From TrEMBL:
Binding positions (3'-phosphoadenylyl sulfate): K165, G166, G167, T168, R169, R246, S254, K371, G372, R373, T374, H375
Organism encoding this protein: Solea senegalensis (Senegalese sole)
InterPro entries: NST/OST, Sulfotransferase_dom
Membrane topology recorded in Swiss-Prot or TrEMBL: Single-pass type II membrane protein
GO terms assigned for molecular function: [heparan sulfate]-glucosamine 3-sulfotransferase activity
Family under the similarity heading: Belongs to the sulfotransferase 1 family.
Entry protein name: Sulfotransferase
Length: 420
């Protein structure tokens, strides 16, 4: 009774019109905050869901179409230095970080209702720009960015194990044009110099690969390293091995030419090649000559691997018919024949084939200055004696491999023997 009495007194002293306005203002305020609550509970999750779904669709689509894009990229060749690759990757990371920062700022300012529509539109534009950037990535960028972001690092399924100055770099660069080949550019030297660092260290050097791609590396010194066959066999018994061989006399001169460019003070080729030139005693302990005794080194490898897991590439034929040699290598690796004659052109200045760049580039891709050096003039008598020295070893090598490389035939010194 006391409550109703006090209420009656209050209503009699306060005008009804004022009371009505007060009640109405409370109702409007309540309605306004209710609407704001609905806005924040409904609109923001939708925007967040948009971000998530947009990113998901972008990544899945990129993954699905990556292989097709890589195949189209194989129509031309693009090579990147380590510095260019690092710059490209860091640029993409910076762009992604900037986009994420914009997202955080948008979330923080979402509570301001007067700017929400403008901010949502701005973020929508940013998301679309990011999506467009991912979809409009060029084929050459795909080889650097997308492939490295997807897949996993694996131990090599194939290795170019030799030989030095045989044409291994040219072969590797041609293979890297293939979209299903991912290879390390530098020589890891794991099985001859860095074995104590372990397989995890070795695997971390490899590029990331997608399903169906082959991981490769090349280190020519493996072929003449006695413990390399056993170590590689312990890693993978079914690994595929590629050996690029070249006329051992020409290879030795090329090897000497490379050393001479770094150490001009070394003795002449003729002095290093003989223990006693008067007696005609060849110094087979000199590494430039010892590498060319292919049969001796192959015998060690055959203790661990069958010939069916080895493929021998002719360094001479790789120069005169690169597409033909590449067809055999792709067959050996179980790859589709994508790298063909349309990827090569002959550089008369260098004296060997070069890879063509994509259509949107003005310059082709040739091997560096260390390739194509002019050989020093060697006494023809020294060359004849070396050919006689190598002949029985060459015959043994032909018999072991079942291939005749025809190194005993006279080779035109200008077109095929005078270049590094």
């Amino acid at each position: 009774m006391a409550f109703w009495s006090s209420t009656s007194v209050f209503t009699t002293k306060v005008p009804r019109k004022v009371l009505f306005m007060f009640t109405l203002s409370l109702s409007v305020t309540y309605l306004f905050y209710s609407l704001m609550s609905c806005y924040n509970s409904l609109q923001f999750p939708l925007q967040e869901n948009y971000v998530y779904q947009g990113r998901l669709v972008t990544e899945e689509t990129t993954f699905v179409t990556l292989r097709e894009k890589l195949y189209s990229a194989s129509q031309g060749f693009t090579e990147f230095t380590e510095a260019e690759r690092s710059t490209a990757v860091s640029t993409v990371k910076d762009h992604n970080a900037e986009a994420e920062q914009r997202t955080v700022e948008w979330i923080r300012t979402q509570a301001a209702p007067t700017n929400s529509a403008a901010l949502a539109a701005a973020y929508h534009t940013t998301a679309l720009e990011r999506e467009h950037q991912e979809f409009s990535t060029t084929d050459s960028e795909l080889r650097v960015n997308c492939t490295s972001d997807y897949g996993e690092k694996k131990l090599p399924q194939a290795i170019i194990i030799g030989v030095k100055k045989g044409g291994t770099r040219a072969l590797l660069e041609a293979l890297r044009v293939h979209p299903d080949v991912r290879a390390v550019g530098n020589e890891p030297h794991f099985f001859d110099r860095n074995y104590e660092k372990g397989l995890d260290w070795y695997r971390d050097l490899m590029p990331s690969t997608l399903e169906g791609q082959i991981t490769m590396e090349k280190t020519p010194s493996y072929f003449v390293t006695n413990h390399a066959p056993k170590r590689i066999h312990s890693m993978a018994r079914d690994i595929k091995l590629i050996i690029v061989v070249r006329n051992p006399v020409t290879r030795a001169i090329s090897d000497y030419t490379q050393t001479l460019s770094k150490k001009p003070e070394i003795p002449t080729f003729e002095v290093l090649a003989f223990k006693n030139r008067t007696l005609g005693l060849i110094d087979a302990s000199w590494s430039a000559l010892r590498i060319g005794i292919y049969a001796l080194h192959l015998e060690t490898w055959m203790q661990y691997f069958p010939l069916s897991q080895m493929h021998f590439v002719s360094g001479e034929r790789l120069i005169v018919d690169p597409a033909g040699e590449m067809a055999k290598v792709q067959d050996f690796l179980g790859l589709k024949r994508i790298v063909t004659d349309k990827h090569f052109y002959f550089n008369k200045t260098k004296g060997f084939p070069c890879l063509k760049k994509p259509e949107d580039s003005s310059t082709p891709r040739c091997l560096g200055k260390s390739k194509g050096r002019t050989h020093p003039k060697i006494d023809p008598d020294v060359i004849r004696r070396l050919q006689k020295f190598y002949k029985p070893f060459n015959m043994m090598f032909y018999q072991m491999t079942g291939q005749n490389f025809e190194w005993e035939l006279e080779i035109d010194s200008e077109s095929r023997s005078s270049r590094d």
